[in-house]
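FAQ: What does the model actually see?

It sees only this:
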Amino acid sequence: MSTLAQLPLEIAQELLKIGAVALRPDEPFTWSSGLKSPIYCDNRLTMSFPEIREKIAEGFAAIIREQYPDCEAVAGIATGGIPHAAWVAQKLNLPMLYVRDKAKGHGKTNQIEGHFSPGQKVVMIEDLVSTGGSSLKAAVAVREAGCVVQGVVAIFTYQFPQAAAAFAEANIPLQTLSNYLILLDAAVANGTVKQEQLAMLQAWRENPQSFGV
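And it is asked to produce this:
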């Protein structure tokens, strides 16, 4: 069983291995926002690999046990966080919720699905944090519904300064199983990234708007 200290590098290695994270510093990806990026992350692929999803679920459960022992419900952020929240809730024997990006336009017009009560302590589960906007929007919705958001835990973050500032401003702790800088170490070690490309890849995290310009 991996320890929490070992997990960030192990998760990074696994994400690279299954292609959930792809690095193309010489042929950048274009995100939906139009941003040019040397990295593309699709953590939904982890659902298809039982050993990896188990490692992720146990990592999330370990963080919640250690950091949020009085957690009363686990909430998945649509869509990537939903399956992981289900696996974690099962491990911890806790209620599970999920949060849409906006309320439904029909029926009960719910944004939050599942049973919850005012004052309930909730930890949010996310698959990927970029700027933090979608994660925080979901967290605010849970807060406004009367629950206490104890924190957000995610599989991976690009470590943008903008995201760190947004979570700090919202007074919501963020913890991740792995991150961009650890991923770069793993990518250099396995030959995915050349040593001479490292400085440029590190600089992208600090100023993503400048890449590929």
